[in-house]
Amino acid sequence: MKNKALRLSILVGFVCFLISCQLLSNSKTPTPVYVVATAQEPTLAPVFFYDDFSKDQNSWAVGDFPGEYADITYKIENGLYVWTVKSHKLANERTWPEIDAIGDFTVTVDARQTSNNADDCDYGLIYRDPTDKSLLSFTVSNQQYSVYSYSTEENWIEIIPWADSSAINPGEFNQLKVVNSNGDFTFYSNDQKLTSFNYSKISQGQLGLNVDVFPENATCGFEFDNFKVIKP
User: What is the pLDDT of residues 129-163, one digit of tens each?
Assistant: First the structure.
């Protein structure tokens, strides 16, 4: 009886061995799985403010504004912010939207002069203390650019005197850009760097648009579009 049980046990073990060998011979080598690391999409900085001037919004100046230095007409029409400035004497005219004060930023605008008297006027961007005691202005005219500041203590200061640049296209829309990082300002036209410097008088300020008309009794026209502020 013991021999029978032993033989049965050996037989069962042998059958199991054959089955396992058959399974191994029929099995396929598993296909290796490769994990491919893909580059992640860059994180885009949030848009803090944007206006494409498709309608009248954000409290930009609109209408007729007579003044001591110039008479100005502002219009938002055909998807553009249109200025006509008639000077009585040297005039600096500026306006800004309903926007909170900001520290570091990137601001861009598409802008052009529509009147054929580039030597009489310029156009660009401003960064102003909300109390209006100081401002920083970046403007272009024809194929030149300049940067100046104003404060109640120091009055007008030309930080970057007028300089030539082929990055500015006269009579066409130019994308003007200013980047501020902890008081280090860099200025661009059509993604080409023009100049940079440090300015620490405004730590939190508002962004807007401004123009200058130099001679008396001159009329200058401007158009602005796609005013955008990005906060890092």
Answer: 998 899 999 999 999 999 999 999 899 999 999 99
* Three-state SS annotation for the chain: CHHHHHHHHHHHHHHHHHHHHHHHHHCCCCCCCCCCCCCCCCCCCCEEEEECCCCCCCCCCCEEECCCCEEEEEEEECCEEEEEEEECCCEEEEECCCCCCECCEEEEEEEEECCCCHHHEEEEEEEECCCCCEEEEEEEECCEEEEEEEECCCEEEEEEEEEECCCCCCCCCEEEEEEEECCEEEEEECCEEEEEEECCCCCCEEEEEEEEECCCCCEEEEEEEEEEEECC
Residue 202 inside a domain? The answer is: yes
Domains in the chain, number: 1
Mean predicted confidence (pLDDT) in 15-37 = 40
Give residue 136's pLDDT: 97
